[in-house]
Amino acid sequence: MSLSRQLLLLISVLFLLIFSGNFIASVNKIRDYLQTEAKVHAQNTATSLGLSLSPHIANPHDPILETMIKAIYDMGYYQEIKLTDIDGNTLVLLNDSQIFEQVPRIFIELLPIETATAMSEINSGWNIAGVIYVTSNPGYAYLKLYQQMKSSFYYSLAAFILSVLLLFLVLRFTLQPLKKIDQLTKTIASGRFARIEKLPWTREVRNVARSMNFMADKIEGVIDNLHQKLESLSQTLLLDELTGLHKKNSLETDMEHLLATNEVGYLFYLKINNFVELARNRGNAATDQFLQAFSVILQECAREQHSKARAYRFYGSEFAILMTGMRTPEVEPLAQLLRQKLTVFGTLYQHMDIVHIGIAPCNPQGNTAGILAAANDAYEQATLIGVNSYFIRPSNEQGKTDEEWRNLVFDIVDHQRYQVSYIGPVKDLSTGKLIMEEAFTQAFDQANQPVPIGAFVAIAEKFGKIVSLDQGVTCKVAEHIIEKSLTYGIVVNLSMATLKNADFRFWLIDFLRQNALLARQLVFSVTAYSAAKDISLFKNFTDFVHQHDARIMLKRYEVQFISVETLKSLKPDYIRLARDLTVGISAESRKRSFIEAIKEVGELLDIFIIAEDVQTKSDFDVVKEIGLPGAIINFRK
Prior knowledge:
The chain is an alpha/beta fold and about 625 residues long. Helices cover about 55% and strands about 20% of the residues. It has 3 domains: about 25-160, PAS domain (Beta-Lactamase); about 250-390, Alpha-Beta Plaits, CATH 3.30.70; about 400-635, TIM Barrel (Alpha-Beta Barrel). The chain has helices at about 5-55, 65-75, 105-110, 140-190, 205-240, 250-260, 275-305, 330-350, 370-385, 400-415, 455-460, 465-485, 495-500, 500-515, 530-535, 535-545, 565-570, 590-605, 615-625; strands spanning about 80-85, 90-95, 115-125, 125-135, 265-270, 310-315, 320-325, 355-360, 390, 420-430, 435-445, 450, 490-495, 520-525, 550-555, 575, 610-615, 630-635. Strands 10-11-13-14-15-16-17-18 form an 8-stranded mixed barrel, surrounded by 4 helices.
């Protein structure tokens, strides 16, 4: 019940109590007054009538006696008038028990009025010749009392209605700021920090409004600071401290995104020859300068040839360049340019055979590990060719034509020749309880051989079959939850193409209505990179999922894709961090600082943060010490 209704109810009850007390007291006073007035009136009438009849009482049969009594009786205020002689014999008797129909019978029964009777002796000379008795009619008293009670009631009712109306308006005006404060708290909870610009005039409510504004400023400041801290830490985690190139984990992420978008490209893998001997002969400082100069050459060559190029440093002497969007005719000129410049660079350092280059195509139907292995194989081939040589791996590794892939994908999806297994159990680090697992799809061709899932999903998206696949997987997950009577959640990975499909949303509405009891156990997941490409679509789908009581997860989250500022409006239920953010966290203070900051963001925005692939006991101890709520643990305790 709202505060205004409570106040209205309280004041109404108080008004009713006060009114009832005053009303009862006033009715009793009026009744007592009417009874006294009736007695006085009856006595006055008896006295005056006795004086009027005194000259005629000598003759008891004188008709004027009855005439005079009737004249008084006909006024209507009397119930009975009786004249008796000295012996008590009735000479004249007039009576009438008139009841007024305007007065309810129950009113008369609840408020009885005593009948007032008065007498007066009539003298004839010096002797008493008769007695006159006058009884007032109580009907008039009841009528006056009833009319007075009705007028008092209606007046009080009108006053009550007017008071309640006035009170309602006052309360509405007074409590309106509380509604703004309530809206402000909800706005803050959703990650948007509005202010109450016009402060209310009520002192206590004004103080609350000021406190809310202060709290909003404080929380917004904290989140902004965390956002800046995370941005800074994210950059330091991605870049090599010495050369400023991106690290290997950035390459893996970039390649996954390249494959997810079906974009072509080439990977150049380079390794400095005899690096250990070079470092030993020149010392640490000179070696650092050598690596920095080598890195500059890689970046300059790559950017001269292609705007989407990005260079990486793996370890001490291992480097790579990812050429997103590069076509086959462009590969040879870049390889030759790299060879020329690095040969000149090696001459400056008396290191003629400085590097070999392995080049492999980024096949949309491949996977990251396979492409890295292909580039490494190409490097080995380059070492057999000669000094500072390169080898380009052929790009015809797909093995199937587009038509063959299309037929295979349609056949697998239509006949549901895929299985769903459950991997990556997420544990609550405070209780050890299993929170969720991830649904993992495995597809098989007609020979019952597994199909690379990355290539399968990419082809399914390309030919518009991904929605049917995601629907089928969702159904299998629901059946699994029901069959196993699970109480924890299951993560269902969805494609962005599925999110924007209207038919899928209509299907999902019906599906969730039919499976309302397990809706909250379905956790729909989208990678942070995919969501970043269409933030508005992801937010719209998140709101849609929440409306139907299901939940949403951002997977492989990194600040470089979606900032903390954007997270405030997205409000996913879960965030699963990218694997590299927690691998080796026990030995890297920067990673620890980053995870501590993202954990605070999760607490402020009410988002459950999950660490992915905690591989060692030392990393697990750090993650638990930081206070992350959940983790996927891949080692035996």
